[in-house]
Amino acid sequence: MIRINLLPGPKGRPAKPQYDVRAQALLGIGVMLITLAGCWWYSASLDGEIETRQEEKRDKEKQVAQLKEQVKQVQDFEQKKKLLEDKNRIIDQLEQSRVGPVKVLDHVSQSLEPLKVWLTKLGLSSDMVELEGKALTNDDVVEFVNNLRRTDYFTNINLQESKAAVENKINVYQFRLVFRMKG
To answer: Residue 41 CA to chain centroid, in angstroms?
Structure first.
């Protein structure tokens, strides 16, 4: 018969120690809980960072909207400024054109004072003045031209025509002058 010795002895192998399954299960569950907690913490920190970045994005979008509004206001201001400058330029031109004929008439009338000369036509275009008139003597015409030359308001005074004529049985001299205004 065959004998089997179940007792450890000097001849047999030593028995392996048995591990506690409950301790291993608890250790596995603990490691799993720690891993899950670490994942949850990492996810929460990423969510917080995402929320921070989204808040920064909203702030930047608000700033961009404010800057766009300011740019629009600046552009509107520049358009209004340009419009006002154009209006001022037109007003200045109108003022100059209004003052021009008044000064021409003033200087011409001052040159007429002691003489027997009267004007029949006065034309003004930009800085050119064309003047037609009549005088009793040719000397009055010459003196009128000299008076105009003495003013500092006119240049290039040119007596284009002076001719004798008879009106209502009176001898008169008809003349035509062309000159420029200074400045």
So the answer is: 54
Residue with tokens 């002691």: 114
- Look up tokens 């031109």; give the residue: 93
Taking CA atoms, 12 is separated from 4, 9, 17, 39, in Å, by: 11, 5, 15, 49
Place of tokens 């591990």: 19
Q: Tell me which residue of 94, 98, 109, 97 sits closest to 148, measured CA to CA.
A: 109
Q: Whole-prediction pTM value?
A: 0.46
Please give the structure tokens belonging to residue 138: 């040719």
Span 64-81, pLDDT tens digits = 999 999 999 999 999 999
> How far apart (Å, rounded) are the C-alpha atoms in residues 81 and 63?
26
Structure tokens at 182: 């200074």
What backbone torsions phi and psi does residue 18 show, to the nearest 5 degrees?
Answer: -90, 130
Tell me which DSSP letter residue 6 carries. Answer: -
pLDDT bucket at 16, cuts 50 / 70 / 90:
low
Nearest alpha-carbon partner for 27 in 38, 15, 19, 39: 19
